[in-house]
Amino acid sequence: MKFLVCISNVPDTTTKIAFTPDNKEFNKAGVQFVINPWDEYALTRAIELKEAQGGGTVTVLNVGEADTEPNIRKALAIGADDAIRVNAFPKDAFFVAQQIANVAKEGAYDVILMGKESIDYNGFQVHGMVGELLGIPTVAPAMKLDMSGNTATLEREIEGGKEIVQVNTPFVASCQQPMCEPRIPNMRGIMTARTKPLKVVEPIGDAPRTAVAEYALPPKKQGVKLIPAENAGELIKLLRNEAKVI
Amino acid sequence: MSVLVVVECDGGEVKKSSLEVASYGSQVAQLLGTTATAVAVGEATEANLAKLGEQGITKVLYDAEPRLKDFVNGAYTKLIATAAQKEDSKVIVLANSNIGASVGSRLSVRLQASLATNVVELPKTDGGSFLVKRGAFSGKAFADVKLEGERKIIAVKKNSIEALHEAGKTAQVEGFSAQLTDADFADAPKQVVMQDQAGGILLPEADKVVSGGRGMKGPENWSLIEDLAKAIGAATACSKPVSDVDWRPHHEHVGQTGITVSPNLYIACGISGAIQHLAGVNSSKVIVVINKDPEAPFFKAADYGIVGDVFDVLPKLTQAVKELS
Ligand SMILES: Cc1cc2nc3c(=O)[nH]c(=O)nc-3n(C[C@H](O)[C@H](O)[C@H](O)COP(=O)(O)OP(=O)(O)OC[C@H]3O[C@@H](n4cnc5c(N)ncnc54)[C@H](O)[C@@H]3O)c2cc1C
After folding, report:
1. Is B296 in the pocket of ligand 1 (CB under 6 A)?
2. Within its chain, how far is the Cα of B221 from the centroid?
3. Res. B197 pLDDT band, cuts 50 70 90
4. CA torsion angle for A218, A19, B273, B251 (degrees, to 10)?
5. CB A207 within 8 A of CB A218
6. Is any atom of ligand 1 closer than 6 Å to the C-beta of B221?
7. Is the Cβ atom of B310 under 6 angstroms away from ligand 1?
8. Best A122, A162, A166, A238 residue to mutate vs chain B (most B CBs within 10 Å)
9. Which part of the chain is the Electron transfer flavoprotein alpha/beta-subunit N-terminal domain (chain A) (predicted)?
10. What is the pLDDT of residues B290-305, one digit of tens each?
11. Alpha helices in chain A (DSSP H)
12. pLDDT value at B196 more than 80
């Protein structure tokens, strides 16, 4: 079985967010980039399923410029077999979805996995777009994925519960916890990752459909109003009379 | 040309987030000089759909096909696409829910529409451009996004738009068939399992949330959280380490890798306020923090705070609520 796992390159989760002076772009200065945490669930589960099947391949795919390669190598170190980088700045979800769909079509992948959303743009869109572009089912967000032959059984989160869904390959799933325990690379993985193939291809497809005009930070909080623990009940009065939330 | 609003229904009722979406859609319609039509998905009653008039909806399309009761991606996508074509809708509005995002992203490709999710404000339409404000960087920032092209789809973040209530106004409910076939139900769920929700309040939709962290020390102490939640009508939540060690179920974990909530009131008990936790809760309108460590980072994000022991403070709060009523 051929797995395609899409990973995005995002600012480390502890990053303090800042923008360029014109507020048009994220300010990358001094920021460490990591594999999107949700994508690690997709990657690890693909590797686990491949191992359980005793064969097959896991290919990682990233749409990004050359500076994303350290994280692609990290995905190879975690256990992917090979990698493809579509050499383009990921302009919007539709642009990225087109690149993924192109690669998926070309390589005839059986299972396409990705994280629920990226923690920078929080789109939660790419999964559905890829599914629709390829005319195959999408399951999002998936909390569990098991395979038996060409049939996958997934748990999909819905508000207030979950659905058990069965689909046949090929399909797309966007992954979230508690699907698996994401793996971290070990020394052997890091050594072998250096020699694994990483192919770079040029983008194709239409122009993006959305553009960020401007970024902004949320307004600063007024500062916390402290209530002494002895008079804790006073808080409830403030929440009713001042904040008007209860 | 009308604005099309997707309303999700459950057990006959229109979901709270869909009342917000309906209100958003009717205000967009007003901005564009047109009317708003809703298309209902899930299990609805005609009486409840007619009440969408209170949110400014003129007409509701309802396909009574029983298999639409549970979410089926293929069928919902086709149903909404058919309604959009019938209404010649250039703008489609839906909830930024798991259903909304699943369908919205497929629809955007099918209808060649631009799409913005996580939207928190009404659009700005000056000078022919169409700008929406959306949350980005896990709640740590906002982005104004320009939607290109003739068709646009907007997924509205929960609790970010006040629902309208024009008492007594009704919408006309119209039978509608999208001619769904068995093939459209190929990805239908085999089973739907609902979880027990504290007090029957769904966390992602909740207006108030009481949340506990590792400072609660163990699952046996959660009755303190539940008692306060019950007293004020809140849902319960927790930090990631709490669900990782199974003190609480995974569907209660909020934060960057959990559920994002934006209630009017978020009460954090024994939670440090790590940046990944804040990412899922910092768009709450009022944040209350109870922590015995005055240096806990959460106090920087809070509106109200008590430096104290949760085991001492929580019963006092519950008691004070009871004395109010
Ligand atoms: C990639 C990544 C993603 C993550 N995603 C999430 C996420 O989605 N959600 C999330 O929550 N975390 C997430 N985390 C974890 C996060 O970094 C923190 O570890 C976590 O939020 C800490 O949880 P906590 O505050 O409950 O526990 P702790 O950090 O242990 O804090 C406990 C707090 O309780 C206080 N306390 C102790 N006893 C008492 C008492 N008796 N009375 C009052 N206060 C008391 C302490 O002073 C302390 O501030 C993520 C981490 C990473 C690396």
Report:
1. yes
2. 29
3. low
4. 80
5. no
6. no
7. yes
8. A122
9. 23-203
10. 999 999 999 999 999 9
11. 37-53, 69-78, 93-107, 126-134, 187-193, 233-241
12. no
Alpha carbon nearest to ligand 1 atom 51, residue:
B276
Which two tokens mark A42?
A: 């997709």
Burial of A213: CB neighbours in 10 Å, binned 0-12, 13-18, 19+: middle
With bands split at pLDDT 50, 70 and 90, how would you rate the model's confidence at B199? low
pLDDT (tens digit per residue) in A227-245? 999 999 999 999 999 999 9
Ligand 1 pocket check for B312: Cβ under 6 Å: no
Which residue in A121, A124, A237 is closest to B101 by CB distance? A124
Please tell me the distance between residue B240's alpha carbon and the centre of ligand 1 in angstroms.
7
B63 in Cβ contact with B7 (< 8 Å)? no
pLDDT reported for residue B200: 72
Is the distance from CB of B76 to CB of B185 less than 8 angstroms?
Answer: no
pLDDT tens readout for residues B50-86: 999 999 999 999 999 999 999 999 999 999 999 999 9
The minimum-distance atom of ligand 1 relative to the CA of B257 is: 8
pLDDT of A112 above 80: yes
CA dist list (Å): B143 to A27, A65, B20, B146: 14, 22, 21, 10
Q: What is the DSSP letter of B57?
A: -
Please answer whether residues B138 and A158 qualify as being in contact, where contact means their C-beta atoms are separated by less than 8 angstroms.
no
Closest CA to A159 of B141, B195, B112, B26: B195
Residue B198 confidence class, pLDDT cut points 50, 70, 90: low
DSSP code for A6:
E
- CA–CA gap between residue A86 and residue B303 (Å, rounded): 45
Q: How far is CA B137 from CA A11, A23, A216, B273, B279, in A?
A: 9, 14, 11, 17, 8
Look at residue B202 and tell me whether its pLDDT is greater than 90. no
Q: What is the model's pLDDT at position A127?
A: 97
How many residues make up chain B in this entry? 325
The pLDDT mean for chain B works out to: 95
Mean pLDDT value of segment A41-55: 97
Sheet hosting strand A210-216, strand order edge to edge: A210-216, B141-147, B131-136, B114-119, B152-156, B91-95, B3-14, B36-44, B59-62, B172-175
Could you tell me how far CA A45 lies from the centroid of its own chain?
13
Average pLDDT for B258-280:
94
DSSP letters for B260-285 = ----SEEEEES----HHHHHHHTT-S
Q: Which residues of B12-22 are buried (b: 16+ CB within 10 A; e: fewer)?
A: ebbbbbbbbbb
Instruction: Looking at A57-138, list the stretches that DSSP marks H as alpha helix, in order from N- to C-terminal side.
Output: 69-78, 93-107, 126-134
A125 close contact with B: CB closer than 8 A: yes
